[in-house]
Design brief:
By secondary structure, the protein is mostly beta strands. Helix content is 13%, strand content 35%.
Length: 223
């Protein structure tokens, strides 16, 4: 009995020490027309503005294009881009100021806050911004070992759209995909992300949208 009680106490202490998912991240499940997807949406609220700072959500298009949200916020998608893989919900992107969201920089320490499929508690994954992708607006984040010694693991199903936060808790990007490229001196485990700043600029027509490519060559635009 003493051993059982001790085990329970240890589990409770570990849970208490675990980092909690940011309230900016909300779990979602979309379904419709034979498609379905778990994912995460991120609040665009301005920090420190209480209810006056509420500004809808940002996520990735490959989650929010799957019909109706059955779990999570019910805000409608106002604008999205399938190639750059971003979507804005519950707000006109023209009202957003890209300067409210920090630019990504190489070496920036970040955390991914999101909800793998069916996970109600969420997960916090540490990482560091490594480099920008040859195809904008994407960047790559090297995932690091977590504080409790668990080796870096790739982002998994349901964590698409998760919030990438800097060390001040500011939203800088949302998760698009993962990767496992072998690069010496790294964990070889990556998350491909969409910077929120660039997504806003594209939505406002102030940055060119991503163009389709074939074998690395941009295809001509057909009118």
């Amino acid at each position: 009995m003493t051993r059982i009680v001790s085990t329970v106490i240890v589990v409770m202490l570990l849970a208490a020490c675990s980092k909690s998912v940011s309230p900016r991240a909300e779990r979602v499940f979309y379904r419709g027309d034979g498609a379905a997807a778990w994912g995460t949406v991120c609040k665009l609220d301005r920090r420190g503005f209480m209810w006056m700072g509420k500004r809808g959500y940002v996520s990735v298009a490959h989650v929010t294009e799957n019909g109706t949200p059955l779990v999570g916020p019910k805000d409608e998608v106002t604008i999205s881009d399938a190639l750059s893989d971003w979507s804005f919900l519950g707000i006109d992107a023209a009202r957003l100021d890209p300067d409210d969201y920090p630019a990504m920089e190489k070496g920036m320490e970040v955390e991914i806050h999101g909800f793998p499929a069916r996970d109600r508690d969420g997960e916090v994954i540490p990482g560091v911004v490594y480099f920008d992708d040859p195809e904008p607006p994407f960047w790559w984040v090297e995932l690091r070992d977590s504080d409790d010694g668990i080796e870096a693991e790739g982002v998994i199903g349901g964590i698409s759209g998760s919030c990438v936060l800097d060390d001040s808790g500011d939203l800088v990007a949302v998760v698009h995909a993962n990767g496992f490229s072998q690069i010496e001196g790294t964990t070889n485990t990556w998350a491909k992300v969409v910077p929120v700043r660039e997504a806003i600029l594209q939505a406002q027509g102030r940055l060119p949208p991503r163009r389709r490519t074939l074998l690395g060559v941009t295809l001509p635009r057909i009118f």
